[in-house]
Amino acid sequence: MFNLNEHPHRRYNALSDQWVVVSPHRTRRPWQGQVEPLPPEERPAYDPHCYLCPGNQRAGDQLNPDYTTTFVFENDFAALLPDVPEGELVERLEPTAPPLLLAQAERGLCRVVCYTPRHDLSLGQLSPTALRAVVDTWAEHYLELSALEWVRHVLIFENRGALMGASNPHPHGQIWATSFLPGEVAREDRCQRRYAEETGRTLLSDYLALELERGERLVCANDHFVALVPFWAVWPFETLLIARRPVPHLAALHPVERDALAQLLKDLTTRYDCLFQVAFPYSMGFHQAPTRQPLDPAWHLHAHFLPPLLRSATVRKFMVGFELLGEPQRDITPEQAALRLRALG
Ligand code: H2U
Ligand code: ZN
Q1: Which CATH code for domain 71-178?
Q2: Which residue from 70, 81, 166, 135 is spatially nearest to 286, judged by alpha carbons?
Q3: Catalytic residue flag (residue 172)
Q4: Cα-flanking dihedrals φ and ψ of residue 81, to 5°?
Q5: What predicted TM-score, i.e. pTM, was given to this entire model?
């Protein structure tokens, strides 16, 4: 009889309409082998050579202020720009054929968010007050950017660790406001909209209810947020952080919910750092409603944590071969990953 814990299968990602191959037979036992801790990374509270530390010079010759809480600046090497000429390129072989060469001019604003003046801390090591200030900063910028007439979406994210391409260990993230819905967000937009139209509820409210009932994929939770390994996780220790109340974006969170988000971010990232006794690398980001629908009933605020590590501080998962050319595949099941993260409480 088919058993999710034993037999190879595919799982459906209802949030983004994608599939993942799961191969539980390859690692039926939870990993109990040696975990090699890396020597702790010693960083000074202030680094005179860091371009994000207070008072220092950035690459673009700008001087950082002597900031004491969060500090946000326009990316000196922004990938997208707010002022570009409108236009598009559409080319097809013959007038009735679909276009094969298609390009559209798009606008964007890219910002860098320093979480704290302290060079030696990480998001999860901030005090509850400092972490709450980060949440407020995110919400503030979401509001400010979404008020711009041309902005359709605001993505708030962080690349942590050299393994994920972070350019600097100073705790920081990024905010990109774009005139378009990025592909991943557009997929979630379609799925959530369809689900809300069919049921009158948000997809993630119903998904969260199922997961709370089952419990096997939960990692940690408080009164306002839940972190779990999603049923359809692709990365070994991928997690999804879901607001219990179906709010469309960070700016809609009440003060107690913002404190709860800060608390759960701390809980989750601390578990990650404990897992392999290393500053756990990841890409994380918040998915929020597109900006042109202020009271979007389909969108449900959530954050994805996508960490590349697989078995230890030095063994990472590679997305190659079948995964790159076919579809993603994983060995350790989401249930096993959740069990391990849950046990670190
Ligand atoms: P990441 O570590 O996630 O790459 O983010 C750092 C960003 O900071 C990166 O996008 C910008 C880079 O362009 N940056 C500046 O804007 N000014 C600088 O002086 C250096 C880095
Ligand atoms: Zn620094």
Answers
A1: 3.30.428.10
A2: 135
A3: yes
A4: -125, 145
A5: 0.95
